[in-house]
Amino acid sequence: MPSQTLSLAQARKLHLAALGLLSTPRRKATRQDLRRCIERMQLLQIDTIHVVARSPYLVLFSRLGAYPPAWLDAALAEGHVFETWAHEACFAPTTDVPLHRSYNRQARSHWGLKRAQDQVLSHRPQLDALLAHIDAHGPVKSSDFERQDGQSGGWWGWKDEKRWLETLFATGELMVARRDKFQRVYDLSHRVCPSLADAPVPDAAEVHAQFIAKAVLALGITQARWINDYFRQKPRLKDADLDMLVARGVLQRVAVQGWSSPGYVHRQHADLLQQTLDGRLRATHTTLLSPFDPLVWDRERASALWGFDYRIECYTPEEKRTYGYFVLPILHRGALVGRLDAKAHRTQGVFEIKALFLEQDITLDEAALHAVAQAIQRCADWHGTPEVCVQRTEPAALLSRLQAAVRLGSSTR
C-alpha cells in the first residue's frame, strides 16, 4: 500500500524538480551543468527540425538558460554522451552504452533496428566493404559519398551508403563520433568508445529492470502505465510488475490525490519527496519547451499531470493542424499555461510568433504576462533573433498586452 499521499500540485513539483524545470537557474551554465542535465534526464531526444532550435539544444536551453550550443556538440565529440536508438534517436550518457547496446540487440522493437536487420541479411558484403573503408581511411559522413540516382527522401529514398551507415550504427558496429553541422560522422565503435571492448553485455532482463528504475528516476514521480514509454520498452507495465522493485526498496509507492492508481518514486529521490511533502519546493521557472521535451512527449502523462492535451503537429498535414507546425509549450511557475507557434528568422534577426494560445481557463496577470514575455525574449536572444514579432494570440485581447510586454522587456535589457 502507498506509504505517503501527495496532492496533485505536489506531484507536479516533484516531477518538475526531477526533470530540472522547477527553478530558474541562478547562475550561468557550465559544460558540466550540461552533462549533468543529460544525466538527470537519462535521454535527450534528437530531432532535425530547426524552425526554432533543433530540439536537443532547446531542451537544454529550457533548463540551463543561454549556453553555447557547441557545448552539446563537444560533449558528443569528447565522449561524455553518445547516440543511440532509445525513446527515439537520442543522446544518452556514455556510461549507459552497455545497457542500450544490450537492449537494442536483444529486446528493442523499433523500425530503425528492424530495417537495419533486413539490410544485414541482404547486403552483408557491402556493409563489410564500408567497414573496411572506414577502418582504412577514418570517420565518414553520408555526404562523403555521391549518390548516383538523383533521388532523395526517407529510409528507402536514401542512397545506399547512407542506408548502410545507419544499418551499421543500428547494429552497433559504428558509432557517431561527432556531428559536423549536425550531420553524423561515423567511426568504428571500438575507436569511438574503447571501453566497449572490455564491457560485458548485460542480460536483457537485467537491462529491462534497470531501464524501469531509470525512467522512474528521470520522471520523479510516475504511474506504472507511463514508465515503458520513456525508453520505449514493451509491454506497458501494471502495478504488479513493479512489486519486486518496491520490495527491494528501489521504488516507493505513493498515493496522489485524484489518481486512481499509485505513483512511484525512486529511492534516490527520498529527500526530494520529503521536501515535497513538507511544502519546501517552490516552482519559480518560466520558459518555453521543445515539442520533444520529456515533460510533454507522453501525451497521456502530460494530460493526467497538467490537464495539457499536447500533440506534436509538425508531422501532421497542414490542414489538419490545430495550433501549428512547431508549437512550444509555455511553462510558468509549475503550470503549462499555453503554447506558441514560433519560427526563428536568423538572417533577419526576427523571432516570429505566428500565434500564442493560452490554455482554457488561464488568464495572465501583469506579473505572469511579464514573466512569459521575458521567457520569449530570452529564447529569442539565445537564437540571435532579438526582434520579437507577435502576430496573433488567443484570446485576441492578449495581443496588444503581450506586444507591449515584449517591447518593454526589450527596452530594459
For the structure shown, list the relevant keywords.
18% strand, Winged helix-turn-helix domain-containing protein, AlkZ-like, globular, 15 helices
How many strand elements? 16
Radius of gyration using CA atoms only: 22 Å
What distance lies between the first and last C-alpha atoms, to the nearest angstrom? 53 Å
- Count of DSSP-assigned helices: 15
Strand-pairing-aware structural class: alpha+beta
What does the main sheet amount to?
A: 6 strands, mixed
- Percentage beta strand: 15-25%
Silhouette? globular
Mean pLDDT across the residues is 92
Helicity range: 40-55%
Uncertain segments:
none
Protein name: Winged helix-turn-helix domain-containing protein
InterPro entries: AlkZ-like
Organism: Castellaniella hirudinis
Short description:
This protein is an alpha+beta fold and 413 residues long.
